[in-house]
Amino acid sequence: MILRKTYVSHPHPGAGTLHKCVLAVMGSLLVFGANILASPLQAQPQKLAHLSCNPEGGDKDKAPYTSARFVNLLDHTMKLQIDGNNESKSVPTCLKQKQIRAGFYAPQRWRMIEGNMVFSIDQGVHRNRVELRGLDADATFEQELVGSVQLRRDAETSPKYTIAQIYSRKPRFPVLRLEFNANRQGKRDHVWAVYRNGIGPRNQSYKSLGPVSGGFDNFSIRFGEDNGIYATFNGVTKFFGTNFPKVWRSQNNSIHYKAGCYLQKAGDCEARFKVLRFQRVMNARIVDQPFAKKSTGNTTAKAGMAGYETIWGATRPARDHALDREALPQ
């Protein structure tokens, strides 16, 4: 711009040459600037391409459905979701239940490794996720998500991500999720229970459940007990009850589980599940989901209870959270 102003104010015989030079320089700058502006948009799809689904089948050693340990869970799973484009309102479906039960898997994102069900994200960005999404369950009954998970920790790992949650359909929010956080309030590598007190923005409560061990850590999220929700991690239990009956436990509501890797900050994530079950608590027993409602006059019976294995044994004493660890393989 300075050269152009000088040329207009003080013309001279070589002005034509100077004008051409200025235009050339300005043109180069415009092209360079355009490339700078365009490069992030051009690079972004390439950066996120690693989260594409690319399902495969035919290898029983890699297909989670071929493992007896996860058959019941996957029978009650709606789909595998893989989101590489931050589609928070409508997460893309990678595998539907029919494909999961047919033995399909996502080779780099969701598969069996050494007998464990593994979820993986490499170089992900905020809101990227690889998650199983469960079938809807009646929110008026006690439900429980139980698992045993090992989380990879290294320099490339995301400092903040969710590994499991109970999600509400109406209103559409996570009721409680388990979040790994590398550094929050001076606590390093802790898992936090994050409860939503209501539907307003930032209306959440955080409670630390303790640090990850480096090995397999046992956890549970128990929905509906004592008109609230309990979160347990390696024997440490926290309770949340604010607005629970009013907001979450409604006859018009349903809940479902989600589990896997859901990034809250950029980085890698690998979650290896040795155990993962979503179950209904009924009559001091825990049985596999789901139940079908069957009307019997003025009462409601539940079909499907017989024949299901309970990891707690025949009965479970109410509110005995020490069993959370004892019931899972160490």
TrEMBL record:
Organism for this UniProt entry: Altericroceibacterium spongiae
Q: Name one Pfam family in it.
A: Alginate_lyase2
Name it.
Alginate lyase 2 domain-containing protein
- At the top level of its lineage, which domain of life is listed? Bacteria
Q: Which residues form the Alginate lyase domain?
A: 114-273
